[in-house]
Amino acid sequence: MSISITSVGCRICLRPAFAVRSSAPLPSATLLPLVIEDALKVGFTRDERLINGALALIKSLTQPLDYGHWHTLIDHPTSPVHVRLQRAGHILGSAYVEIDVGTGPKSQRVVFSGDLGAPHAPLLPAPKSPQRADTVVLESTYGNRNHEDRRTRRLRLKAAIDHAMKDGGTVMVPAFSIGRTQELLYELEGLIHEAADPQWRELAVIVDSPLAARFTAAYNRLKPWWDAEAHKRLRAGRHPLSFDNLITVDSHEDHLKLVDHLAKTRRPAIVLAASGMAAGGRIVNYLKAMIEDPRHDVLFVGFQAPGTPGHQIQKYGPKGGYVDIDDQRLTIRAKVSSISGYSAHAGQDDLINFVRRMPKLPREVRLVHGDSDAKHTLREQLLAMAAAKSQPTQVTIGTEAHV
Questions:
Q1: What is the DSSP secondary structure assignment for residue 79, as one 8-state letter?
Q2: Of 66, 85, 146, 294, which sees the most CB atoms within 10 A?
Q3: How far apart are CA 16 and CA 97, in angstroms?
Q4: Dihedral pair phi/psi, residue 203, rounded to 5°
Q5: Phi, psi of 399 (to 5 degrees)
Q6: Alpha helices in 342-394 (DSSP H)
Q7: In this structure, are residues 213 and 224 in contact, taking their beta carbons and an 8 Å threshold?
């Protein structure tokens, strides 16, 4: 089985590659080269010969797999191993993996969730629970909390933009280049389309990240993989990821000019720029130019890890504190808001439902990929759910086992 590697924030996430029985572009096959090329340029080399050689090697080693079809990994008469990929709803191309080992009554099925997406997220269909499993290896990133519902987060996004338009300011959104940026663009297109205020029709939506712009262009080529709601917009003649208000910024020179322009004028705008935790990238220049001006807003739409400037702004900004960026201490006068619902990860209820909606609960659930509190909280909730269904299930965290 081939797997593609996608950089999401500070993590490296594994995503199975796959194909479809049609002429549609393949999500993982389309996105993988962009991610690897960027990772090589940032962390290894800018030598085009080496980069092109690495990309050619990766392409030659990648073997796409279909969703929903069993594939043989090990062809053995008594101990065969088969895998099947199902949509995970995290980013385009993401999948959870079902693994069957053995034959007959002694066969075992293990489900590895990988990163699960939240239901009702823009663009992507929600993941469906497996039909059965003996063991589920389940992520627990948000095992201790739920996200805001989509209506609430859209209203909060609109409120932040209304504030910027009223004060002639910029809404600065630190956002990862893949997944979250495209979801936000989709929501912004919807808000602009529905707006009665003519100011909204002129609102500049700026993607100031060459990588995010490339990912957005790739997402546009992957329309066959969008969900039913997105296809309804397309049939109505709308363009959710390439609308008239959208501006992309490529060169560093243009980026610096735009920062200066927005800081000095009173033109309302919303800017999506990396990095997602404000630890580097172009968002830093916006923050240094605008965070001390109350006309502007900083809007966080994802987790901010302790120790990052994003976490410092999120924690101390509402209290009128300060942030240290590039050895510069800046007083936070901009309005600071956070919207949790735009995380690409499933919330607590979504994780529980992934297990609950199986016709028969698995014998064991192993919790991974989450902080200690998230894992332990989710464990208690899963045990309570299993008890309510009168189907005892073992929930394991590391070396701990609880029934």
A1: S
A2: 85
A3: 8
A4: -65, 125
A5: -95, 0
A6: 348-356, 372-388
A7: no
* C-alpha span between 21 and 78 (Å, rounded): 31
The answer to whether 272 and 184 are in contact (CB under 8 A) is yes
Q: Which of 240, 121, 231, 125 is nearest to 188 (CA)?
A: 240
Ordered strands of the 170-174 beta sheet: 246-248, 204-207, 269-273, 170-174, 297-300, 335-338
pLDDT in tens, the chain (403 residues): 233 323 233 233 333 443 334 456 678 888 888 989 988 987 888 899 999 999 999 888 888 788 899 999 999 988 999 999 999 998 889 999 999 999 888 899 999 999 998 887 888 888 999 999 999 999 998 999 998 888 888 888 898 889 888 889 999 999 888 888 999 999 999 999 999 888 898 899 999 999 999 999 999 999 999 999 999 999 999 999 999 999 999 999 999 999 999 999 989 999 999 888 999 999 999 999 999 999 999 999 887 888 999 999 999 998 889 999 999 999 999 999 988 767 668 899 999 999 999 999 999 999 998 889 999 999 999 999 999 999 989 999 965 544 4
Q: Is 58 helix (H, G, I), strand (E, B) or coil?
A: helix
**What domains can you pick out in the chain, each with its CATH number?**
1-66 (no CATH), 82-146+348-403 (3.60.15.10), 150-342 (3.40.50.10890)
Find, among 374, 169, 130, 154, the residue nearest to 270 by Cα.
169
CA distance 62 to 45: 22
Amino acid code (one letter) for 285: N
